[in-house]
Amino acid sequence: MYQFTKRPSRVAALGMIAVGMAVAISSVSIVRAERAHPDKSKTYNCGSGTACVEGNSTGSSTWGVYGAGSNADGVHGVTGSTNGNSGTSGISTGTSGSAHGVYGRSSNGQGVYGTSSSNSGVEGHSTASGGSGVAGIQTGTVSGSGDGVYSESADKTNLYEALEAKADSSNTYIFEGFNASTNGLCTIDYNAALACTGGAVVKNVRMRHTNADGQHVLAYAAESAAATIEDVGTARMAAGVANVTIDPAFASVMDRKWYYVFLTPLANTRGLFVSEKTPSAFQVRESEGGRSTLEFDYRIVAHPLDAKNDRLPPAPAMRMPRRQS
Description:
Layout: H1 2-34, E1 173-179, E2 184-189, E3 194-196, E4 206-210, E5 216-220, E6 229-237, E7 241-245, H2 248-251, E8 254-265, E9 272-277, E10 281-286, E11 294-304
Antiparallel strand pairs: 1-2, 2-3, 4-5, 6-11, 7-10, 8-11, 9-10
């Protein structure tokens, strides 16, 4: 009777040992799959499936994946791909309303910062009518706190490529910049025409032209101490007098307070002078009572109606942006 009860106890003990070993082996395999590190971080290795780490959220204010870093990146993505994949990818699949594929915000630096050693630092494409490839908004209340869009290039040959943008239709701009506090607007349309409500402040202005040999050359624009607008023409004098009507289209953009007339006779004469000026016409006479009949060229220089009456105003300060170290 004693032997009969002893044998089942040995069998039970062996069974418990076997179960314990199985649990231990299973636990070891789980730990190896997660590769626990002494710093409590975990690495997941996978070669198939949707993702090595995946987070799904159905809540309206719950993130699928959240990363926070006090001194380093909150979320850091790296790829060695050569087929166009990304280190970090953001996709919005909504068919209505508004959502961001990638959103960046910062209280002490760039909201989104991109750098590249072989291509564009940041590149944006839009297929929507009226949509922007890259849109930048600066809402800081401190003067000079940041830029809507800032770009730079180390390419010293093609400096204009610091900011590269494209427009695919006449409904979109290559570039559009807007300051909500002053309603200042600057655009480059689909035909590469630049338009700025505040004008352009540059070192010099050069225009690109094509000569008779098909070569491209640059011509410098004339500079003036005050804002001016000009018109030229040819008139005819009879019996020493000519009454010249100013083109109404040109007269409508003059401030009509002052304008200059420069004369060049096209035949021998005793001399020509402007005897009278009105907002819509001027009179030319031959000097010393001459009564010649001849043609002459004229050049009118006036002040634009919507321009400021300042001369050589102080240049605005050029704030050098903070560059990423």
